[in-house]
Amino acid sequence: MELFKIGFISVKFVDVIDILIVSYVFFKLYKVMRGTIAFQIFISLLLIIGFSLLAQLFNLQILGWLLGKLTDIWVIAFIILFQPEIRRILLLIGKTRLARLFMKIDINENITEVVDACFDFQRKGWGALIVITRTMGIENIVDTGERLDSKINKELLVSIFYPKSPLHDGAVIINNNKIEAARCLLPLSETQLMKNRSLGTRHRAGLGISEQSDAIAIIVSEETSVISIAEDGQLYPLPNISDLKDKLKDVMSSASVTKNIKTILESSEKVND
Question: Is residue 268 part of a domain?
């Protein structure tokens, strides 16, 4: 269905939809890459493409040929340079309401243990870093620490983050309703460091894992005793216990379809054995 014409160009309803979708995609790209080094590289690539078009327009053959060679490999360069950003975009897509239709809600009974431990750390002035996985595995992070595969309980968490404990440095990983590992090394966020240079290593580590996966990180500051949650590369202070409980209910109550299928298959294998 034709809506209007601009000169000899006919604009249809489907064209408007197409433009809106592309605009939305570029807006999301801008939000994800804003403030990163990748954003500066992306602008440089756009400038190269723009100069290439101008060279063709003014018939600058040598410059056009040189810039044309660069633009020929822009797809490969885009994938290599923007691999972390592409992964973050895919994670954002996976967290949309449409994607969550495929998630199964299962209230986790371990929320109270985690919350009580965090407020015990706050009262004692201890630092802590707890990572809770969601749909994306972080096995490479788990391998950097000490595997525990233990039931979640407050006493174990308190003993891990006791300042004189050999496991208190690093992060605790919680996965599938158990403490999977302790003393794990997390990637540090460089993006947030540029925005806030007052962030300590523990906060940068929590932000780093939230940027590279869909996990969240609970951070208890040793200096200020403030409890915060890192999610999607953003830091959110939590002033009271109810806020932390509500957040953990939202996070720990969802399990991916993949994990559910895996559980069913494992159960069927035990029955067959």
Answer: no
Structural domain contains residue 273: no
Q: Are residues 111 and 71 in the same domain?
A: no
Give the tokens for residue 70.
Answer: 């660069």
DSSP-derived 3-state class of residue 219: strand
- Cα gap 100→247, rounded to integer Å: 16
Residue span of the structural domain in which 258 resides:
104-263
Q: Of 259, 174, 161, whose CA–CA distance to 216 is shortest?
A: 174
pLDDT in tens, 172-215: 999 877 899 999 999 888 775 556 666 788 999 999 998 888 88
At 86-136, the pLDDT tens digits run: 666 666 555 554 454 444 434 456 788 888 899 899 889 999 999 998 877
* Domain-located, residue 269: no
Helices (H), the chain: 13-33, 37-57, 61-72, 74-81, 83-94, 97-100, 111-124, 139-142, 154-160, 191-195, 201-212, 241-252, 257-272
Asked, for residue 240, whether it belongs to a domain, the answer is yes
Distances (CA, A) of 150 to 20, 154, 178, 179, 216: 49, 12, 6, 5, 20
Alpha helices in 2-110 (DSSP H): 13-33, 37-57, 61-72, 74-81, 83-94, 97-100
Q: Which two tokens stand for residue 69?
A: 């060679």
Q: What is the CATH number of the domain that holds 109?
A: 3.40.1700.10
Which position has the token pair 């002035």? 125
Q: Phi and psi (nearest 5°) for 96? A: -70, 165
- The partner residues of 219 in beta bridges, in order of sequence, read 129, 228
